[in-house]
Batch of 4 targets.
Target 1
Amino acid sequence: MGIRNQIGQALDDAVRALGVEGAVTSPTYTIGHRYKGRVDVSHLDLFRFRGVSAAEWGDLEPYFDDAVVFVEWPEAGEGVLPKPRAEVRLEHGDEEGQRLVTIRDDADPGLRHGD
C-alpha cells in the first residue's frame, strides 16, 4: 500500500489496527520496521531516497514477504517496488483535527472518508 501523506500524518493507528501492540515508531532514519500483529506488517519510509537501486531493492525486498506493507513516499521506488494494491492519501482537513483519507487503485477511486 503506497501512502502519500502530509508531514504530521502518522501511520501508527493504521499499523495498530492490524493487531500490532507496543511501540510503533517512524522508520524515517532506519528506512523500515517489521511488526507482528494479526498479520505481519512492514512500514517503510522512503523520504530520504531519490530512487531505489537494485542493491537497495535487495535490502527492502524482505519487508514485502508475507506482510501488509505501508510505504511512505512510494514515488521514490516507482518502477522498482511491487505495484501497490491500493494507494492511500492522508491529508489535513480544513477543520481543526480533521484528517481526510483518499483511497485509490483497487478500491473505489471516489471513496473518501473524513474523521
Target 2
Amino acid sequence: MPLSETVIRQTKAESKPIKLFDGRGLYLLLLPNGSRGWRFKYRIDGREKLLSFGVYPDVPLKLARDRRDAARQQLASGIDPGTKRKAEKVAQGDTFEAIAREWLPLHGLDAAQRAGLAPRPDRAAARPCRA
C-alpha cells in the first residue's frame, strides 16, 4: 500500500532505523534521532544502488514520487541516475577540489601552509626517510 502524508507524520522514530516503503523503490528512512530522508533503491548492471532525494518535510511525498519517476525514466533509458547526478555536480564546480583551487590563488600558499593545507618545504626536508 502506498504511503500517505498522515502515515508519515504519525510514525515515530524508534531505537532502530525504520523504512516506510511507498513502492517502486522509494522509501522514507526514519532514523532514531528523528530525521526522515527519502531514498530510492535501484539496480543497474547487477548492482544495487541508493539515491537520496532529500529530507521530509522539505521534500514532500508528491515531489519525492516525481523524483523517483524521473530516476526510473533515466534507468529505462540506460542511464544511471546516481552517476548522472555526480557528473552534474562536478560540472557545476561544487566539489571540494574546485573550491580549494579558487581559494588558493586568492589567499596564497603561505595561508595554505599556516592552515596546514599545503606541505612546508622546511618540514618536508626534516622528516626522516622510512624504509
Target 3
Amino acid sequence: MGRKIKAILASLLILPTLTITSGAVLAADPFNPLDKACQGAAASSPTCQDAKGTENPVAGPNGIINKAANIIALVAGIGAVIMIIIGAFEFVTAGGTGFKAAAGAAPTKAAKARARISSAVIGLVVVALAWALVRLITNRVLQ
C-alpha cells in the first residue's frame, strides 16, 4: 500500500513540473500552412481572410474535443463520487470486521469497501490528469 501511495504522489508531482517547464515550448507560434500563400495580392482572398480570423471548431478552445472531454470528466467525476459514497456506506456497515482475512479466505467487507474507495479515488485522479492533458494539447498545441 505504501508503494502505491508513493507512486501516486510522485506522478502528481511530476506532471505539474513537466507542464510548467514545457510551457515555453508549447507557447511557440502555431503553424499556419497559408502564411506564404496569403502574402501580397492574395491576402484579400476569402480563403486567406477566413484562415486568419476563425477558431478551429474541432480542436479550438470551444471545440468538440474540449466539450467531449468536459462531459466525460463530469460523468466520471459523478461516478467516482457515487462509488466513494457507496464504499463509505459499506465501510460503516462492515460490522467491525478486520481489514485482513485469513490466508485463502474471502476478503472482509471492510477490505472490499476500502478497495472500492481507493479505486474510485485513483480513477478520479486518472480522469483529472487525462482531462488536463486534453485541455493542454487542444489549447496550446492544436491552435
Target 4
Amino acid sequence: MKLVIVESPFMYQDDNEDLRAIGQLRNITYARLALSDCLFRGEAPYASHLLLTQPFVLDDDDANERKLGIDAGLDWGDKADASVFYTDLGISTGMKYGKIRADKIKRPYEERTIDGWENALDESPKTTLLRLELYTEQQLSQYIKMKKLFNGLDTEMLLKP
C-alpha cells in the first residue's frame, strides 16, 4: 500500500462554545471520511491531527502543543510516499505547513474532495452534518451536553451515528 499523509482542517474557531464544538465535530468527521476514502483507494493513511489531538496526548488549543503536534506529523510525513489534501473545508494553517514540507522534500501531493461536501464552506457545520445525515439533531444536542458534562474529553466517540 502507498503510505499517504492526510491533510484536512482540524481546528474550528468560534467564540460560541456550542458552535465551536459542532464545528470541531464536523472537521473530525470529515477527516475520518478522508481516512476511509484513502483506504478504499488502496492507500495506508496517517492523520496526525486525529491521533495527536486525542485526550491525554496534546491540547490543540495550546499554541505550543499544537506546534509540537504539527511538527511531529511533518516529521512522520517525511517517510510517506505522498500527501493528500482534502479541501472541501478550505486550507488550514496546518495544511499550509504540510504543503510547504511536501514541496521542500519533493514529496508528491494532490488535492481531493469528498462527494457531498462541496458546499460545506457555504453553510454552518451543523447544517452540513444534518444535510449529509451523518448525525441527527438529537445526537448533536446530546453531543453538546456531553461536551459540557465531560469538559471536552473525547465525547464524539460516544455518539453512534
